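Usage

Read records sequentially. Each one opens with the input sequence:
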Amino acid sequence: MSLVSPKPIPDYPWFIRLFFWKQQRTYGRVLDPGLLWGRSPLVFATVALLYAALNRGRSPLPPALRALVTVRVSQINHCAFCVDINSATLQKRGVPEAKIAALADWRESPLFDESERIALEWTEAMTLNSVDDALRARVKAALSQDALVELTGLVAFQNLSSKFNAALDVPAQGFCQIPPRAL
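and closes with the structure output:
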């Protein structure tokens, strides 16, 4: 159970209830983190708009790569909810179950291509506060500047989201049917 309890839906402002309506249509239920972020309506709306901007169809990062990155950040930060929902997104984006299961050990797996490897290395280094000049040079050589900005923003956003959910002990909601591996 989460550290903070949700309020009854009618107690949230109307514009937050619109987000809840969209979540209900998309996921079949209101997401637990939404109910918690909704306690601070302006922050919730801002976070939701940032997520939408990072998850847009015209991003310079392929959808499957974006989902790989969000799952990896979630694994590192021990966010059960984020691993669950983002792994389900990976499945929907056509990533094979074997690759999803191997994500925590991507360095030892032959399932990841070079673009995924550099993105995952950047993701881990940012999340663990260990970005160095050598990695910056490799990332700069591998990605366009627009893609690097988007990747960096996505990793930062997912750290915000997964640390919020992990700290408040938001549980998984059963979106992904792949058994979770040890993080």
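Summary fields computed downstream for this record:
- The chain has a mean pLDDT of 94.
- Residues 63-167 form a domain with the AhpD-like fold (CATH 1.20.1290.10).
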